[in-house]
Automatic annotation (TrEMBL):
Protein name: L-rhamnose catabolism isomerase
Source organism phylogeny: Bacteria, Pseudomonadati, Pseudomonadota, Gammaproteobacteria, Cellvibrionales
Annotated keywords: Isomerase, Manganese, Metal-binding
Manganese recorded as keyword: yes
InterPro entries referenced in this protein's UniProt entry, alphabetically: L-rhamnose_isomerase, L_rhamnose_iso, Xyl_isomerase-like_sf
GO molecular function annotations of the record: isomerase activity; metal ion binding
Species of origin: Parahaliea aestuarii
UniProt keyword annotation of Translocase present: no
Length: 430
């Protein structure tokens, strides 16, 4: 396997920080031991944790006002994978990449798979794109795709989803994520029920074509690009459609796709209860679909979501196997740094949720002791689990301090020389 960053640099940095990490780890181990928790068992769980990187997150995202490309941005999916390999080399909890088509379209998908293999990467869910018109595309998605009033546009959108499945099969993926921007911008513009019926008919054509080992993830989003109504605007519409389609259709929760203050952890619990949780697009937001870095604004919310996930995991909920993916847009940071940091923040929430004294929590819930119940969650959330995360990375061959090593490596500067800017702003990143 080719490594992107000199392995010697990683080892050297780890050795330099080893004594401090061991001291911090031992101290945390003693704190956890007083709570009856074995730090080694938690570190093992941290080592097993994985979250997929979105291929589109490796370039600067931009907004509808402007995109400010950074140096050495990947110009194609091969280079995107190389950046993803840097992330995985240093954080060791991002072994897969979620591709987006046609942004990541290539002539030869076996070659792409080989490239990923050589970099030690696999592929997670593939994403279709019927929210943009592509060059040379016969029919426009201006008025929708899977729910368009014109059957020919719907057929084109269905066909694209089917080709995404074919490409994904070559890559070794086993899930298709479908997010559509279909909706309306004016009251009266669309008939809500007819529009959803059309969506369902198209979604059924995709669902029926799924290979036996594939799942279909329905991603809801409240608004944007449609500003009055969106066809799959919330988890209600999403779960109704998933129930109509069948067991292999489930709901994908993107944290930025809800109204402000919505109780997302409770939505997660409901989806788990009814076996309809597909997985996540992790990110953070203050206003809407901001696509800010995971845990940068609402780390407690992210912890509460993982509290539900760990609860389900520990109760052995049947069929519980959510897919974890990042979905972020990086505008003012180096995307590699943001993705490394975000992966760590998602892993941090998971590890903290593992520390919740669940028996105590259940007892406080039964006794209606709101104060002790909520403090039981806080007792886990308030612990700094950084030494566990660093230790897990080091044991997996990654870097205790990923961003420091990444900066010391000069990777961005090196690829800037190899990847002259195309001068285009539309590098498949929106
Ligand atoms: C839409 O806002 C979304 O969250 C979907 O997951 C898309 O695939 C992705 O962003 C593309 O930017
Ligand atoms: Mn998303
Ligand atoms: Mn989004």
């Amino acid at each position: 396997m080719t490594t992107q960053i000199d392995a010697g640099l990683v080892d050297e940095a780890n050795q330099q920080g080893a004594a401090h990490l061991q001291a911090d780890y031992d101290h945390l181990g003693a704190v956890l031991a007083r709570r009856g928790i074995d730090i080694e068992a938690i570190t093992e769980k941290a080592r097993d944790f994985a979250v997929a990187v979105p291929s589109w997150g490796t370039g600067s995202g931009g907004t509808r006002f402007a995109r400010f490309p950074g140096p050495g941005e990947p110009r194609n999916v091969f280079e995107k994978l190389e950046d993803c390999a840097v992330i995985q080399q240093l954080v060791r909890c991002t072994p897969t990449v979620s591709p987006h088509f046609p942004w990541d379209w290539v002539d030869d998908f076996s070659e792409l798979r080989q490239h990923a293999d050589a970099l030690g990467l696999g592929f997670d869910a593939v994403n279709s794109n019927t929210f943009q018109d592509q060059p040379g595309q016969p029919l426009s998605y201006k008025y929708g795709s899977l729910s368009h009033t014109d059957p020919a546009v719907r057929a084109q959108a269905v066909a694209h989803n089917l080709e995404c499945i074919e490409w994904g099969q070559v890559l070794g993926s086993s899930a298709l994520t479908v997010w559509v921007g279909d909706g309306s911008n004016f009251p009266g513009q669309s008939h809500f029920q007819y529009q959803l019926e059309r969506y369902l008919e198209s979604a059924r054509a995709i669902y029926d074509a799924l290979p036996a080992d594939w799942d279909m993830f329905l991603e809801h989003k409240m608004f944007e690009p449609a500003f009055y109504s969106t066809v799959i605007q919330d988890w209600g519409s999403s779960v109704l459609c998933a129930m109509e389609l069948g067991d292999r259709a489930r709901c994908l929760v993107d944290l930025g796709h809800h109204a402000p203050n919505v109780n997302i952890e409770m939505i997660v619990s409901r989806l788990i209860q009814f076996h309809k949780l597909a997985g996540f697009h992790f990110n953070d937001s203050k206003y809407g679909d901001d696509d800010l870095d995971s845990g940068s604004l609402h780390p407690y919310q992210q912890f509460l979501i993982f509290n539900e996930l760990v609860d389900a995991e520990q109760r052995g909920q049947a069929g519980f196997n959510p897919a974890y993916m990042l979905d972020q847009s990086h505008n003012v940071t180096d995307p590699i740094e943001s993705l490394m940091n975000s992966a760590e923040e998602v892993q941090r929430s998971y590890v903290k949720a593992l520390l919740v004294d669940r028996e105590a929590l259940y007892a406080h819930q039964e006794a209606n002791d709101a104060m002790l119940a909520t403090n039981t969650l806080k007792a886990a959330f308030n612990l700094d689990v950084s030494p566990i995360l660093a230790q897990a990375r080091v044991l997996e061959g990654g870097a205790a301090q990923p961003i420091a090593v990444y900066r010391a490596s000069g990777y961005r500067c090196a690829v800037d020389k190899q990847r002259p800017s195309s001068g285009q702003s539309g590098s498949g990143i929106v």
